[in-house]
Amino acid sequence: MSELDDALERFHLGALEYAGRFSNHGPMVAEALQALGHASLIPAWVDVYAARLPAREQGVAIAVDAHQAALGGGRDGDWIATFEAELAAADWSDVLISWLPRLAPGLFAAAGHGALRTAHAVRSLEREETPVRRRELAVGLGYWASRYQALPGRPGARAEAGCGPADVLREIPMLDPSSRRPSFITDAVLALDAVPAFAQTIERFDPEAMPASAALSEICATVAGHYLDHPEARIAYAHSVTVPSALRLLGSYLDPDSLEVALGYALQAAAALHATNGHARVHDGAPDVQAELEALSGRADEIRYRAACSLEEHAIKLTEACLREDAIQPDARLRLAAADAATEMGVSRGGRGG
Predict the structure, then answer these.
(1) What was the pLDDT predicted at 117?
(2) Separation of alpha carbons 234 and 242, rounded Å
(3) pLDDT in tens, 289-313
(4) Is residue 263 located within the same domain as residue 317?
(5) What is the residue range of 84's domain?
(6) Which of 69, 132, 244, 343 has CA 20 to 30 A from 316's CA?
């Protein structure tokens, strides 16, 4: 059994969340460490992280005619049991093809961690299909369905020709600081319900402005720039990169029309994070730090090594996503964001450190 499979076995004993509502990053980071070329660090990651997780909730499969009503209603164990049953009866790729279009409007589930956990599980299955990896897919899909969360507006509903992702992200209204909620990301975005301009801007998105792959590249590079401009909100902006990038790992299981729709929801998620964390001020980093980041940004292997050794969940996931996206469509913002994540997001305090 591989280091990844061993880790998944251990993490499957734990709940989807811990300490209230913090997402269990364990399986995602283990898979990302493998993708970064540092699978040998997976056991250390398990030792650092698994101790913080409460026991997993068990459940029973939800009846087919109750699926839609149950979306977003919690029932973690029941949703996981539902997908375990579906995956036992069908090929895992067929389950994805069936469910991804239904789950896409709720892409923001658990601040995107449902989609992220699903995407990492899919990539691991593409490498090698094992029972524990199929179970991890059931957990990822179950998390997505359990925490399903739709954001205001329907992307592309009033599409303006040529209005691409960068246009939307440039024009998205920033939430007034007095209206912001210093709470979990999933709560903070609820304030956007009272901002009609947010939905209106999202609905202007033209999913046919460019091919889907190019649009994903534009989203990821643009929000990597936002990440660099907002060091006080690194965690929120890390998600604005990793969530859209997760769609790239899932895109081959969506038909072209469904992929266009899902692309709009990925953009919407990134826009919501920007609207609730952004500001007009451009961050001017210390010249010496900036010079170090620029020098490091050209050394991908060193970035991978530093991120992996940090055992910091967001640093590992963001670094992996940025370097993966940069390999598809090179952009200095992605390389700088990866260098920043690897050096500036800290190290994991682990389950024993609080």
Answers:
(1) 98
(2) 12
(3) 788 888 888 999 999 999 999 999 9
(4) yes
(5) 3-146
(6) 132
